[in-house]
Amino acid sequence: MFPVRIVILGFILAAAPAQSADYLVSEEARALNLPFSEAVRVGNLLVLSGQLGNLPGTTELAPGGMAGEARQAMENVKAILERNGSSMEQVVKCTVMLTDIAEWPAFNEVYVTYFPGPKPARSAFAASGLAFGAKVEVECWASGE
To answer: Is 10 part of a structural domain of the chain?
Structure first.
């Protein structure tokens, strides 16, 4: 087999021999019976599924409109990172989906409190609809164990 080396965002995803992926799902998330993993680890890269502002272990959205959902989505991201040996300081990329791009400033007010130092690379766009009627979804990539 020939050595394979793929580098994305400075992380080596595969090297000879190719690294396997670990599909990570907490018991809390497993109980919701949703068709995806909370995160996937390949080498030192941790890729999180998009997180809504749902209250942990439920599909109920946090109260408080965009600010409440944004805060809960970021808390959900933080919890998954910590559960899997990473942290907010190790986030290198986030993708933010909003149902109304006019709420981008309100989202940013919350977002920056989670990254007081250097900010990860980020993309943001409006989506025509998100699961459970959410206003925001945040997907992050981070380095970890």
So the answer is: no
pLDDT for position 132: 93
Q: Please give the residue range of the domain that contains residue 128.
A: 20-143
Q: How confident is the model at residue 144 (pLDDT cuts 50, 70, 90)?
A: confident
3-state SS string for the chain: CCCCCEEECCEEEECCCCCCEEEECCHHHHCCCCCCCCEEEECCEEEECCEECECCCCCCECCCHHHHHHHHHHHHHHHHHHHCCCCHHHEEEEEEEECCHHHHHHHHHHHHHHCCCCCCEEEEEECCCCHHHCCEEEEEEEECC
Point out the least confidently predicted range of 11-15, 22-26, 58-62: 11-15
CATH number, domain containing residue 37: 3.30.1330.40
Average pLDDT over residues 4-28: 63
Our count of domains for the chain comes to 1
Residue 27: inside a domain? yes
